[in-house]
Amino acid sequence: MSDSTVAAANAGGAPKVAKISEAIIRIAGNSQDGIQAIGGFLARLAGRSEQEVMTFMTIPSTISGGPSIFQVRIGSGEVLSSGDEADVLLCFYQHSYEDHIKSLKKGGIVLYDSDHIEAKPEWQKDYHHLGIPISGLTVEAIGGTAKDKGKNIYSLGLIAKMFDLNLPKLEKLITERFTGKDQSIVKNALAAFHAGYAHSLGNVLETFKFVDSQSKDGHQVVMNGNEALGFGLIAAGVRFGAGYPITPWSDIMELLRRELPKYGGSFIQTEDEIAAISMAIGASYAGRVAVTGSSGPGISLKTEALGWAIMAEMPLVIVDVQRGGPSTGMPTSIEQSDLNIACFGGHGDSPRVVIAPADVEDCFYSAIEAVNIAKKYSVPVILLTDQGIATRIEAFREPNLEKVCQDISPTFEPVADHKPYDLSKPDGITQHLPPGTWIQSGKYPIVTGLEHDELGHPTGSPKLHMQMMAKRRKKLQALGATLPTPKVYGPPEGNVLLVGWGSTQGPIKEAVDRARAAGDSVSSLHIKHLNPLPPGLENIFAGFNHVLVVEMNDEGLYGFGQLGGLLRSRFCDPKIRGINKTDGLTFKVKEILERVKTNVAEGLRKH
Amino acid sequence: MSQILTDAPQSPKVLPIHVPTAEERKGLSKKEVAADHPTWCPGCGDFSVLALYFKLIEKRKMWHEKITTVAGIGCSSRFPYFVQAHGAHYIHGRALPFASGISLSRPDLHVFVFGGDGDAFSIGGNHFNHTARKNIKMTYCVMDNWVYGLTKKQTSPTSPLGFKSKTDQWGAIDYPINPMKQAIAAGATFVARTTHTNPNHVLQMMEAAMDHDGFSFIECLSECVEFYEGAFDASNPRKGGVFNLIPADHDVTNEMAAYKLADEPFPGRFGIFYQVKKPTKNTKETEINKSMQEKVKGLKDWQILQKNFDRMK
């Protein structure tokens, strides 16, 4: 709460109302407590109130149960990350209390269920404790047993009171959420919510009110990254997909399975990952860019088929929602360790396109960009997101869907003649004609994984192999030349340049803001197009003494993460070094700043 | 070069040509359907399967653009190169899911898949089972030669016990797959067996398979003269064998009877073992689409998406 901190105890006074511009609320409990629902309501409310919001959650990879947290940061200004330290911790169990109290900033509020938690005296002086028998009061409000759901909604009422949240908007959200189910469920939810809202906050001497956010044009929509990506694919005109369930990709396939039939499309759940990509490639061949996706282990399985699509020059979108690897790894942890497989995975020289969205909104637009590149360059495009973006909720400006939505239906105009792998094209771009197209010369093309001639028939000619290899490379070089050079955040010259990709954009930018506020010369650069890389990066790097690549992956055998290694091999620049970690949790701003300090000191020694 | 780079890709030039109506267009001749000269060894059984596929196209007056020939990897999987029509030569064992992608998104096409026993029952075994059980509309013709030919004589999943190959010098020890049983058990709705030495029968089976609305599977014995010569002599009357048709009184809808027929020792029976009418996945998906589209009737695609976004405000 940057504009105000919790007031010190002010004996006997009526609670004051402090104006704040943002708040970070961490909710800790078990995975069945519905804490995501509280976070979801808060996020959606923020979206409807034209505020910015970002959430962060951890879920256990157990089938049922286990500790889970949901953190939501709501702000009237720009919210770049889910925040380092919470202002309020809402906790349901002793373990939630003990494990997460340290994530609370000094002087922050612990709102705890006193039916399950015994507060520790030694923490009372650092944190403002507020014990409420949440479980008991929920039962009192709506009946049932303490095990029943409802305490999450009761707690939402408490939070609504504490932050003076818009009551009618929240009531509407709750009603919308539970409508369609049994009427008594809506009634119970509202009863629990009102009971929580009416409960006295006792010794809290201050409640809060968000300052009005600067008015923005248009409405905001609130969703998580997987939803944004799925809807982006639909907007892009994708009407066929195939996949196999794997965390954290499954949400996207569930969404597409549910939604595509409305548009006359289909999403097929296949017997395995290989069948999924094969079916998607088959559908792409049949005339319209199709999609498949997975997470790490499934991407490994798909790579042979991916190689075929590169060889046959077939358009395709492959989503990789990264998680902790290698192997089954850490299924519910955040990691950015699939950059190498995305850019280089597979046998042989197999150039493909890799795009990594930076946030939830970017998932929507990157999906459209991926489809258009796949179609235009007749090439597989990998959309590399991660568990962090996939599950976090953000509010963003509603896209103009009428303008954004596109139709990519194939046409089957007869042609006089056709050579899909025409070598005379200087940019090397192939355009296939889908089956169903009448070719009047009577010469029909074959698509194949064998090296081939211009019509797709197999060849053993070394010359053709070299020419076709160059063709597949050249078209991506052509694409690379059209990509925009990313903009430096902060001054274009200085001491340290932080380079990032994917979900770390927010914390990196925030680290730049904080470092600059402290007088340090730090800027950042976010690279979204990973393969091919955009032009002009070397000129940007030239303006800094240190180029530190911040990534959530291992520093590798030689001390560089995966993007770090790629940039080093591309630019041969020894000042490119890495800040890496693999703890499965999103980067904290503080963490980045500390690592920058030690890294720069080390770098100077090495120079 | 940047000028060229930013240009949109040129679509192939469409000439102002007269598109004949269906009545005006004639069926294709064998010459018009044949493409590359097959690379198979002289005497290979696959030649006759190809010739009969041409005959099928000719007889049923199919046009180039309406046929899609798909294959995986193996000698027989070279098939699409020899057919003058849209076609795909995909990776080993995965021709069926590739073909499913075409079939499910393009109801206007005839999808034919050709392949060998390794493709169908070894590396692609999983896809065989699932494509069959989902009853995805296509015709799958497995040219079974009981050996890996392209890689020069290794044991295949249909090699009989005792077959001496480079990977079983002392004779195959693994029990072979029975393709008929495999297909029936997997839920294929059309299961037939034929042999390359009886061209009329092959064509008959191909026609019946093509007319079947669903996943139609044909096992066509196709001798590998190089690595398994004489494998099917016992089924060839010209070599002193017998070609026994399915008994006339066999009820093709009787799964147990079909299974029993499939259990007969080689040369066994030839013809349609099993055929039932079941809704295809293609039909079921279309039905889902119809009912879902009913709910958004009259809306443009962007308006359907807008409804989702309105709920996320």
Explain what the structure shows.
The complex is a heterodimer of chains A (607) and B (313). Chain A is of the alpha/beta class and 607 residues long. In chain A, 54% of the residues are buried. In chain A, 37% of the residues lie in helices and 21% in strands. Chain A has four domains: 16-210, Pyruvate-ferredoxin oxidoreductase, PFOR, domain III (Pyruvate-ferredoxin Oxidoreductase, domain 3, 3-Layer(aba) Sandwich), CATH 3.40.920.10; 222-404, Rossmann fold (3-Layer(aba) Sandwich), CATH 3.40.50; 412-482, no CATH class; 488-606, Rossmann fold (3-Layer(aba) Sandwich). The two termini of chain A are 41 Å apart. In chain A, the strands form five sheets. In chain A, strands 11-10-12-13-15-14-21 form a seven-stranded mixed sheet, sandwiched between helices. Chain A has 20 helices and 23 strands. In chain A, β22 (544-551), α19 and β23 form a beta-alpha-beta unit. In chain B, 46% of the residues are buried. An eight-stranded mixed sheet of chain B has the order 2-1-3-4-8-7-10-9, with helices on both faces. In chain B, α3 crosses α8 and α5 (117-123) packs across α6. Chain B is globular, with a radius of gyration of 22 Å. Chain B has 313 residues and is an alpha/beta fold. Chain B has two domains: 25-278, Thiamin diphosphate (ThDP)-binding fold, Pyr/PP domains (Rossmann fold, 3-Layer(aba) Sandwich); 279-313, no CATH class. Residues 1-16 of chain B have low confidence and may be disordered. β17 of chain A pairs parallel with β2 of chain B, so a sheet runs across the interface.
